[in-house]
Design a protein that fits this description.
about 190 residues; globular; Rossmann fold; about 45% helix; binds shikimate-3-phosphate; single chain; alpha/beta
Length: about 190
């Protein structure tokens, strides 16, 4: 039986997931996309596709400033589209010019994950350019503290992201009013599974 999709076929605004590196934007975003019939887009993957380069290469060759310009261009592109679930880069929505592109048109959702959990998830990270340094720990804490209020100000909705990805995804869908009736599990078990 074909699954009923929430507002399938209608033009829908985007759901933009924001939050610190490692908060689960991509994992949760993919679930929401699957459940709601929207397309999932990872902002960093879009930047890599557009430039033909890895995020780490862009940082190495053009610095963070160069990266932020590309990120802004991708934000503008995505804000002009609809029916997407967007996993924003961890820094993207700390810039007002990017928030402005989505605000009012799309729904910005903060996945608010405690620092301790983020720290644990990122402990072995070898990919994110901002964290490849000896004082990684201090940088992470300072960035987290500086950014959290910015995320909160940008977001239309804040979801505590300490549950399983599936539960978090359902919490987001419910909060933004796009929980698909037939896709909604009758009851979740302790692991967030049907
Ligand atoms: C960044 C987060 C990364 C990526 C880039 C910069 C940041 O995305 O955009 O390394 O400034 O926090 P994720 O949040 O997906 O790791």
């Amino acid at each position: 039986m074909q699954r009923r999709r929430w507002q399938a076929g209608k033009r829908m605004n985007n759901i933009v997931l924001c939050g610190f590196m490692g908060c689960g934007k991509s994992t949760v975003g993919k679930i929401i996309a699957r459940k709601t019939g929207r397309r999932f887009v990872d902002m960093d993957a879009e930047i890599e596709k557009k430039t033909g380069r890895k995020i780490a290469e862009i940082f190495a060759e053009q610095g963070e400033e160069g990266f932020r310009e590309m990120e802004h261009a991708v934000c503008a592109d995505l804000a002009g589209r609809s029916n997407l679930v967007i996993a924003a880069g961890g820094g993207a929505l700390t810039f007002r010019r990017n928030v402005t592109l989505f605000k009012g048109k799309d729904t910005i959702v903060l996945l608010d994950v405690p620092l301790e959990r983020i720290r644990h998830r990122l402990r072995n990270d070898r990919v994110r350019p901002l964290l490849q340094r000896p004082d990684k720990e201090a940088v992470m804490v300072a960035l987290y503290k500086k950014r959290r209020p910015l995320y909160r100000a940008a977001a239309d909705v804040t979801i505590k992201g300490k549950n399983t990805p599936l539960k978090t995804a359902y919490a987001v869908m419910e909060a933004v009013g796009c929980a698909p009736g037939e896709d909604q599990p009758k009851k979740l078990d302790r692991n967030g599974l049907k």
